[in-house]
Amino acid sequence: VQLVESGGGSVQAGGSLRLSCAASEFTFDDYAIGWFRQDPGKEREGVSCMSSLDTVPYYKDSVKGRFTISSDFSNRTASLQTDSLQPEDTAVYYCAALYGPCSIEVMTTTARILTEVNSWGQGTQVTVSS
Predict the structure, then answer these.
(1) Which residue has the higher pLDDT, 114 or 52?
(2) 22 strand-pairing partners
(3) Which one of 7, 43, 92, 98 is at 20 to 30 Å from 118 when CA atoms are compared?
């Protein structure tokens, strides 16, 4: 499953970015979608995920109220709107189709599998300056 991330950039604290994830081989209503991020020297972490339009998304505590996940089935894209960005949000952001319905446990499992098979996309860099 090939996903391509885009939309990253450099912003000052308090700024916003809209990250996008495009799929070419499947529709988002077949899979739950997750957003992950990794800062150099740190483990990759799950940030947000959603199973479908009628389920409650998951958000990491530190991004609740600031990030919003969404998907557009017709365009085969998923997005992560990031608002009120802080320097600690600086990382490379990745999207991935999950190996199960949205949950932190499934995100952890998906991250482990994708790392083992080296199957992450190129990601998109988000840099937030203070």
Answers:
(1) 114
(2) 4, 77
(3) 7
Burial of 102 (0-12, 13-18, 19+ CB in 10 A): buried
Contacting residues for 99 by C-beta, under 8 A, at least 6 apart: 106, 109, 110, 113
Torsion over CA of 104, 107, 108 and 110, rounded to 10 degrees? 160
Residue type at 22 in one-letter notation = A
Strand order in the sheet with 9-12: 9-12, 124-129, 91-97, 33-38, 45-50, 58-59
Write the pLDDT tens digit of every residue in 22-59.
Answer: 987 766 667 889 999 999 889 999 999 998 766 889 99
Q: Which amino acid is at 93?
A: Y
